[in-house]
TrEMBL record:
One of its GO terms (biological process) is metal ion transport. It catalyses: Mn(2+)(in) = Mn(2+)(out); Co(2+)(in) = Co(2+)(out); Mg(2+)(in) = Mg(2+)(out); Ni(2+)(in) = Ni(2+)(out). Acts as a plasma-membrane magnesium transporter. Can also mediate the transport of other divalent metal cations in an order of Ba(2+) > Ni(2+) > Co(2+) > Fe(2+) > Mn(2+). Acts as a magnesium transporter. Belongs to the SLC41A transporter family. The keyword Hydrolase does not apply. It holds the Pfam family MgtE. Residues 65-198, 277-419 form the SLC41A/MgtE integral membrane domain. This is Solute carrier family 41 member.
C-alpha cells in the first residue's frame, strides 16, 4: 500500500517541478536522441549477428531478443521511475536513506533479472518447439545459460549507470523524470544485445554441453544472496514479494513479439526488418516510459492512493491524453511531436552507416513513419488509462506500469513493423535491397 503524501505551502516538503513545454522538450531531447542512437547501434549489431552460427542454427535466440531488450523496461526504467519519484518527493535527501534505497533496489533488480532471464529462455524454448514440433536439449540449455548470463550482467551494468544518472540529475537540478528513463535505455539495448551475441556464440562454438549448464547454475546460485540483501530494505522487500506480476507478464508479452520477429526474419524477403526492430521498439518504449513516469510523479504529489484527479474520472477517451485539462497533456503533445523528426534522423543514420539493406524510398519512409506514429499514439493513450487505473486500485504505477507499457511497445512495434514490411512487399516496393 502506498504512503499518503501531503504537500502544503511552507511545510518544507518539495514542490512539484514547474516546467514550460520548451524547457521540457529541451530536457527530453538530448537523452531521447542519445537513446535513439543507442537503439540504432543495437539494430546494426543485430543485423550483423543474425548471420552468426548461433543465430542461424538456434533461431529461438531471436525470440529471446525482445524479452531481454525489454528488461530495460521491466527493470531499468522501473528503477529509474521509482528513484525519480523518490528524488522529487524528497526521499533521497538523507544520505543513509538514499543509499538504502539504491542498494535495496539494485539487489532486487538482480533477483528479478536472473529469474526473468531464465523464464524468457523457457518461453523461447516452448514458443520455438510448439510450431516446429521438435525439441533439442542442447539448444534449450544454451538458450537458458545465454539468457540468464546476459540478463544478470546487463542488468548489473545498467543499474550502476542508472544510479549515477539519478544522483547526477538531482545534483544538477534536472527533473529526473525527463531524462532518467531514456538514458536508462540509451546503451541498454546495445549492451544487452552485444552480451547476448557474444555469450551465445561462445557457448555455441564451445562444444562441451556441461559448460552451458555450469554457466546457468552459477548465476542462478547467486540469486539467494541478492534476495537476502534486498530483503533488508523495506521498500525493496515489499517488491520482492509483490512485484513479480508485471515483470513476468511483460516478459511473456515481449516473447510473443520475439516469436513474430523470429517468423518474420525466417522469410528471406523480409529479413531487412531486423535492423529497424530495436529502433521502433526502443523509441516507443522510451517515450511512453517518460509519460508514465511523469503521470506517476504527479499522482504521488497531488492524490492519495485510490483517488484520481477529477479530469480523469469516468470513461477514458483518447482526446483526454493530448487535449485535456490535466497536467500531463502537454508532455504527451511534446512526446508525439518528437516521433517523426526523431525517426527520420535515425533512419538516415542507418542509411549513412550503410546498414539495413532497405532503400529509403518515399513509400518506405511514409509507411515506416506512419507505423511509428501509430505505435506511440496507442502507447500514450494506453499509458494515460493504465497509470490512472493502477493508482485508483492502490498499486504504485512506478513499479507496475512501465513493464507492461514497454512490453506492449515491443509487441506493437514488432507486429506493426512486420505488417508494414508485408504491405511494402505486396504493393511492389521490393527492390533488390529489400530483405537482405
Amino acid at each position: 500500500m502506498l504512503e499518503r503524501l501531503r504537500f502544503c505551502p511552507g511545510s518544507g516538503v518539495h514542490n512539484m517541478p514547474k516546467e514550460s513545454p520548451l524547457a521540457m522538450a529541451l530536457q527530453i531531447l538530448v537523452p531521447f536522441l542519445l537513446a535513439g542512437f543507442g537503439t540504432v547501434s543495437a539494430g546494426m549489431v543485430l543485423d550483423v549477428v543474425q548471420h552468426w552460427g548461433a543465430f542461424q542454427y538456434i533461431t529461438e535466440i531471436f525470440i529471446l531478443v525482445p524479452a531481454l531488450l525489454g528488461l530495460k523496461g521491466n527493470l531499468e526504467m522501473t528503477l529509474a521511475s521509482r528513484l525519480s519519484t523518490a528524488v522529487n518527493v524528497g526521499k533521497m535527501d538523507s544520505p543513509i536513506e538514499k543509499w538504502n534505497l539504491i542498494i535495496g533496489n539494485l539487489a532486487l533488480k538482480q533477483v528479478q533479472a536472473t529469474v526473468v532471464g531464465f523464464l524468457a529462455a523457457v518461453a523461447a524454448v516452448v514458443l520455438g518447439w510448439i510450431p516446429e514440433g521438435k525439441f533439442q536439449m542442447s539448444h534449450a540449455v544454451l538458450l537458458c545459460s545465454s539468457s540468464v548470463a546476459t540478463a544478470f550482467i546487463a542488468s548489473l551494468l545498467q543499474g550502476i549507470i542508472m544510479v549515477g544518472v539519478i544522483v547526477g540529475s538531482k545534483k544538477t537540478g534536472i527533473n529526473p523524470d525527463n531524462v532518467a528513463t531514456p538514458i536508462a535505455a540509451s546503451f541498454g539495448d546495445l549492451i544487452t544485445l552485444a552480451i547476448l551475441a557474444w555469450i551465445s556464440q561462445g557457448l555455441y562454438k564451445y562444444t562441451y554441453p556441461y559448460v552451458s549448464s555450469l554457466v546457468c547454475a552459477f548465476f542462478m546460485l547467486l540469486t539467494p544472496l541478492w534476495m537476502v540483501i534486498s530483503s533488508k530494505h523495506p521498500a525493496s522487500r515489499t517488491l520482492l514479494y509483490s512485484g513479480w506480476e508485471p515483470v513476468i507478464t511483460a516478459m511473456v508479452i515481449s516473447s510473443i513479439g520475439g516469436l513474430i520477429l523470429d517468423k518474420t526474419v525466417s522469410d528471406p524477403n523480409l529479413a531487412g526488418i531486423v535492423v529497424y526492430t530495436p529502433v521502433i521498439n526502443g523509441i516507443g518504449g522510451n517515450l511512453v516510459a517518460i509519460q508514465s513516469s511523469r503521470i506517476s510523479t504527479h499522482l504521488h504529489f497531488h492524490c492519495a492512493p485510490g483517488e484520481v484527479p477529477d479530469e480523469t474520472k469516468g470513461c477514458y477517451y483518447p482526446c483526454r491524453t493530448f487535449c485535456g485539462t490535466g497536467a500531463n497533456h502537454r508532455s504527451a503533445q511534446v512526446l508525439i511531436l518528437l516521433v517523426v523528426p526523431g525517426h527520420v534522423i535515425f533512419l538516415y543514420t542507418i542509411h549513412l552507416m550503410k546498414s539495413g539493406h532497405t532503400t529509403l524510398t518515399p513509400i518506405f519512409m511514409s509507411v515506416y513513419l506512419a507505423t511509428a506514429l501509430l505505435q506511440v499514439l496507442l502507447l500514450l493513450c494506453i499509458a494515460d488509462w493504465m497509470v490512472h487505473s493502477m493508482w485508483r486500485s492502490g498499486k504504485d504505477p512506478d513499479s507496475f506500469s512501465i513493464p507492461y507499457l514497454t512490453a506492449l511497445g515491443d509487441l506493437l512495434g514488432t507486429a506493426l513493423l512486420a505488417l508494414s514490411f508485408h504491405f511494402l512487399w505486396v504493393i511492389g516496393d521490393r527492390d533488390s535491397d529489400v530483405g537482405d
